[in-house]
Amino acid sequence: MIWWMGACGLLAERQQRVWEMEDHVADVLAARDALRAGDLAAAQAAGQGLMREDPVPGLPDAAQPFLAAVRDGGRALAREHDPEAAAATLMAITGDCAGCHRALAVPVPRSLVGSPEEDAWLGLVFESEARWREGASAVALPEGASWAERRAAYAAWLVPTPGAG
Q1: For 96, left (φ over 0), alpha (ψ -120 to 50), or beta?
Q2: DSSP label of 63
Q3: 76 vs 89, 92, 96, 122, 150, CA distance in Å?
Q4: By three-state DSSP, how is residue 62 classified?
Q5: N or C: which end of the chain has fewer CB within 10 A?
Q6: Average pLDDT, stretch 124-146?
Q7: % helix, strand, coil for the chain, step of 5
Q8: How many CB atoms neighbour CB 87 within 10 A?
Q9: Closest listed residue to residue 156, CA positions, set 17, 6, 36, 51
Q10: What is the pLDDT of residues 86-102, one digit of tens each?
Q11: First-residue to last-residue Cα distance in the chain
Q12: Where are the alpha helices (H) located in 51-146, listed in sequence order?
């Protein structure tokens, strides 16, 4: 009986971590989609979601600095008053996501949408060359650049300069 209670506790901790990650995914995607649509207020609201200090029981030590960075990024995103700066902040958050995914050896998921834009996005949040290659050319993003350069290009694609291109 005791082993069962311990197993249930571990499952509950894991589920709590999954829920927290699902919240982060929803907030990051909401910010991305809001910026692409030109809705800075909605991107700021998504930043407020990212900065929530919900408990994440059992989070591995390797993930702790990334969680703190995502929350700090959320605070910064919520305060941004310029779409280009908000996009750059969101791209910094994707770097934190990728760092955590690497640290915890999280596998790259398949694109649920199947669009080139989604593949490029997954390339960023997992720093996956394969995913980036599948999506980058469709949204005119550089293939051979550093991840920082790719994030900058994606930010520019998210929030195009009026009259450009």
Answers
A1: alpha
A2: G
A3: 7, 10, 14, 22, 21
A4: helix
A5: N
A6: 83
A7: 75, 0, 25
A8: 26
A9: 36
A10: 999 999 999 999 999 99
A11: 66
A12: 64-79, 83-103, 116-126, 129-136
The Cα–Cα gap between 162 and 156 comes to: 11
Q: Running DSSP on this structure, what letter comes out for residue 113?
A: S
* H or E, element range at 147: helix 147-158
Place of tokens 């990212």: 50
Numbers of helices and strands, H then E, in the chain? 7, 0
Q: Which of 82, 19, 81 is nearest to 52 (CA)?
A: 19
Contact 126, 101 (CB under 8 A): yes
Give the pTM. 0.85
From CA 128, how far away is CA 147, in angstroms rounded? Answer: 10
Buried/exposed code over 36-75 (b: 16+ C-beta within 10 A; e: otherwise):
eeebbeebbbbbebbbeeeebeebeeebeebbebbbbbbe
pLDDT higher for 35 or 163? 35
